[in-house]
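Q: Hi! First time doing this. I have a protein sequence and I read that you can turn it into a structure. Is that right? Here it is:
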Amino acid sequence: MKRYTLPAVAVVSLLFATTWTLAERPVRKPTQPPAAPPEAAPTDTVAAVGLVEPGTEHIALSCAVSGLVTSLYVQAGDRVRSGQKLFSVDDRDLRADLEAKRAALENARAQLARLEAQPRPEEIPPAEAKVAEAKAQLSDAEVQVRLIESVTDPRAVKKEDVLRRRLAHQAAQARVDQAEDDLALLKAGAWAPDKAIIQAQVKQAEAAVRQDEINLERLTMRAPMAGLILQNKVRLGQYAQCGRVDEPLMVFGGGRELHVRADVDEEDAWRVKAGAAAVAHVRGNSKNEYALEFVRFEPYVIAKQSLTGAAKERVDTRVLQVIYGFRDRNAAVFDGQQMDVFIKAAPPAEEGTK
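A: Yes, that's right. Below is the predicted 3D structure, encoded as structure tokens:
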């Protein structure tokens, strides 16, 4: 009995373990994927990976002058018109300088107006009165000269008195000439070179004001054209750094039409003709298909970039980029979305002669 007890126990334990394992094994029911997987491309098509982009391509917006963001007028997803304000940076120092230059401009204009208003009407009568007074003194001097010269007896008057009265007459004549010249100068108004100097100062002040106004306009970023704000990285209080940065302040797309930029491997580039028909499938749902129409080639073949992130994707090659537009203008796709593009290849006869 001892010879058979241990093997029997082992067999029973094995049967129990097998039965329990089979009973507790989870039952997996077959499930259908939410969308059909992508099918292999037919032999008469060229497969490519495409990215949805606006008709103007992606425009990375920057600013003309770096500074602290004080105003933000739009958000991502806003559709804007050409010239609409997007954001502004701090402009307090420029506004203070502009006020000072505007005051200098007003001062220059006031000086020019004063010169152009000459002579003042109330200045003419006093000058004319001086002329009349000088003429009266001249007439008196003439009478005195005639009177003393009328004496024929040289013993009655001294030669010094005659000379003095003649000199007095000449002085009176000079005063008349001076008064008349002063009156003519007053009536002539401001001197032309003086006006030219002030006019130049006015133009210089206007240019300084205009320069500050332009600099103020440069502190506000505006939409270059009508389009859509695709991405916004601008925040109030942020220091906006201008120039080329790793992350653009805003990404903008002009127009209302969307394009697909398809990357065709250079090995298949010769099979693609201008005007070739194409279709695009949304990633994750191969049944969602959109007809495409040819727009243009990007004539420069570039190094391929990793779009899908898959480990099997080849990036050690170059690609020809083909731009297509959606025939359905209301296609339910998003900017930046990846799509599987299938382009109708040229017939074999044309392939061999191309």
